[in-house]
Specification:
The protein is α+β, with helices and mostly antiparallel strands. Helix content is about 50%, strand content about 15%. It folds into two domains: about 25-180, Regulatory protein AraC (Jelly Rolls); about 190-300, Orthogonal Bundle (Arc Repressor Mutant, subunit A), CATH 1.10.10.60. This is AraC family transcriptional regulator.
Length: about 300
């Protein structure tokens, strides 16, 4: 499976990427998305979404960054955001796929269980033979997530977040058991991907401090030019774009999901002058913070009104 000349960025394969501030998740079964494409999902990436694919039957040949792997059911594939991936499934494949906001999961895990963060951020192929313990641990959570995704009941975001966190905790436990037994899961991750992961982790920790690209590059042991080249090769973004995108993502989420005044939000994000923050925000979104908030809340309201009641 070869890379296309331009790596598409999707929310779900074939769909346009959802807004950066979205905390949504999606549940579907592998054939739903892959069968219409003749069981081949070409290389693409999700800039903000984590994917979990559990194969209950069949097999898959897949590309993850620059590594080729094969998964034979039962197995679980973890694809964090930003990693280029593509799949070629056998025609008898089945199993659930969960796509969720990685930032949202990391925010909750950072408070509830910080040791879970590496499990969320590292791509993995987790295989087990006929040990049904792992199926018994994972499938009830997948099934409950499916029910929640169909119901659209009050508290949908809170319940789905809790279930997603519980699912990642089970994955973490399985990894620990396999590690202890000398059967460590494959981690198909290239040197470039490790460097990008390190940079993103640094940005996650320090984006509120308005650190310069030079400061991040020094922590990475490289020059700003080298760091930007790395980001362009892996993400088609400059290093400064990555930093700004993280600040914007947090600003957009706070504007949509909280009532925080814009002056306070600017201070939280390291801006001493809220007018400077507003200029930064408008430059990258085309809207003032207050106009963005009004537009996004109106969009959420329309989505809520168009959602059919649960049956």
């Amino acid at each position: 499976m070869a890379y296309p000349r331009v790596i598409p960025n999707y929310d779900l394969y074939g769909d346009q990427a959802s807004p950066e501030w979205s905390d949504s998740f999606n549940f579907e079964w592998i054939p739903q998305r892959s069968q219409p494409y003749n069981w081949v999902i070409h290389p693409h990436r999700h800039d903000t979404f984590l994917q979990l694919l559990y194969l209950s039957t069949g097999q898959v040949d897949f590309l993850l960054d620059d590594a080729h792997w094969q998964g034979l059911a039962p197995c679980l594939i973890v694809v964090p955001c930003g990693h280029v991936h593509g799949f070629r499934f056998s025609h008898d494949v089945n199993g659930p796929v969960v796509t969720a906001s990685q930032r949202m999961l990391e925010s909750v895990a950072g408070v509830a269980m910080p040791e879970l963060l590496p499990t969320i951020r590292k791509p993995r192929l987790i295989s087990w033979q006929d040990d049904m313990r792992y199926v018994d641990q994972l499938m009830p959570l997948f099934q409950t997530l499916e029910q929640e995704s169909r119901a659209h009941a009050p508290g949908h975001v809170a319940v789905s977040t809790s279930l997603l966190l519980a699912l990642m905790v089970q994955v973490h436990r399985i990894v620990e058991v396999l590690d202890a037994g000398g059967n460590a899961p494959h981690q198909p991750i290239s040197r470039q991907a490790r460097q990008i992961e390190k940079f993103r982790s640094l940005v996650d920790r320090h984006y509120r401090q308005q650190k310069s690209l030079q400061a991040y590059a020094s922590q990475m042991g490289m020059t700003p030019g080298q760091l930007s080249r790395l980001c362009r090769e892996a993400l088609d973004m400059s290093g400064l774009d990555v930093i700004n995108a993280r600040v914007l993502h947090e600003a957009q989420r706070e504007l949509v999901y909280t009532h925080m005044p814009i002056k306070q939000l600017a201070a939280e994000l390291g801006y001493g002058d809220d007018a400077y923050f507003s200029r930064f925000f408008r430059k990258h979104t085309g809207l003032s913070p207050s106009a963005f908030r009004a537009q996004a809340l109106a969009q959420l309201h329309r989505q809520h009104q168009s959602t059919p009641p649960a049956h």
